[in-house]
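Hi Y.,

Following your request, here is the sequence exactly as I used it, all 514 residues.
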Amino acid sequence: MTRMAIGALVDRYLAHHARFHPVDATFIGLPDGHDRLPPAGPDTPADERQSLRALRRDLDMLAPGATTADRLDARMLRAALVHAEAALDQRPRRLQPSWYSGEIAFALISLLLPTAPAGAGEALAARLHAIPGFLAAGRIALSGRPTPSDWCRRAQRECDALLRLLTQGLPLHPLWREALTPAIDRAKAALAEFSGGLTALPDADPACGRDYLALLMREVHGLPWTPEEACALAEEAFVRLGAAMRAHPGAQAPEPPAVDPADLPAAYARWHARALDAGAGLVTPAKDYALDFLPQPDWARSCAGDLYFLSYRSPPAIAPGHGSIYWTAPAAQVPTAIKQTHAVHHGSIGHHTQNARARSAASRLGRIAGTDAASGIALLAAGTMVEGWACYATEALAEIDGFYTSREEMALIAGDRRNAACVLADIRLHTGEWSLSRMRAFYRDEAGFPEPRIWGETTRNSILPATRLMYFLGTEQIKTLRRRSQLGTRDFHDRLIGFGHVPIAWAAEEMAAA
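Below is the corresponding structure, written out as tokens. Let me know if you'd prefer a different format.
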């Protein structure tokens, strides 16, 4: 395989991705598609399948790669093709109602963020004009089809949030123009019609089935476990970590007072900076790329709670600029969440450093695969590295004396236990062992999830199989790999995340071959 050969296939795949996933293209920083919504007509699946098969045929003809970049690009491309083809057959997005609402929401929001591409105003107008036709295709695709009722409810909530964005939020944004009003009025009518039609759809089971789940685990995540083996691993950890939580001295320590919203930007920034310094012995921190902490913008406040509106969103990998923005929450937060979730997991040596290192990875697909898009990351194969690293890095800072309090160290154990619980829930739901209501009862009664998070998390997990399991299983892979490595701590971590957003298992193979 020559670099030119795989490079040409990557170019073709990115063009394919921009054609069928133009919202992803905007978030990634690809040059095309910013004025479009995804194609959703009845001919789209056949067109997409033809494009995927041509890519797969040409990929199959290439010889094995001679370099890390070649091998990882080929494996990432194959994983993307396998996932896309299987989804067309077994999990078509055009039959998932919140795909329509989510794509519209983030087609617009991607153009309202500070990272928006040039010409965002014109692109915004074009996407607004495209909403009625996009939703009309959705109504035809979904008409009379059995659809999980929670999927419909999520889509309806997102449609309501979109209506608030269009009527309350967008007029507060600098891109607002009175000339947008007619397109907005047509979009509002289309959203109301689409949302109302979902109420009549018959209910259905959200499980994807064992075979599809196992395919994602094996061929896309590169995991070495079957669903049953992963469940056994997670079950043991869930019990063990529960015992560790109860015995930990931090379990009895009180949580310090919550921090007021007005003080959150300074608190986030302070702990982000401390984590960058404290973690410098663990991994080379990304101090060469800025992260500014600002309150959630006024235009987003009316809609963010019911959308996949992330506090930290990975910068466009192809056009990252010199820094990005982290929106702070509009509600008070406890110090543990500020430090662990925001300053470390998403900021400092977590996603912030990981994304910076991925942008210089040898694999072109490894540079962009972990980009946050409309409802998840651009390529599922990035998941074990993206979320495995962020969870692992949060735990790793416990190796630095004094960074965490005793209560916060106990919270790390609780977080690891919740992630193990999510492996059980992800697999048991999608293999049909558990219903969605049983999954929710487990989250509430045994896994310790806060009640306000349960419906949204479980519904999203039901829509996106093999996404919640990647946190714990990715973390476990990194821990195992580190125990076996002969490298020093910082060198090991730098080399690992230097491969970019690729499955941990494939990065491990490249490290072993070096």
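The beta strands are 290-295, 323-328.

Thanks again,
Q.
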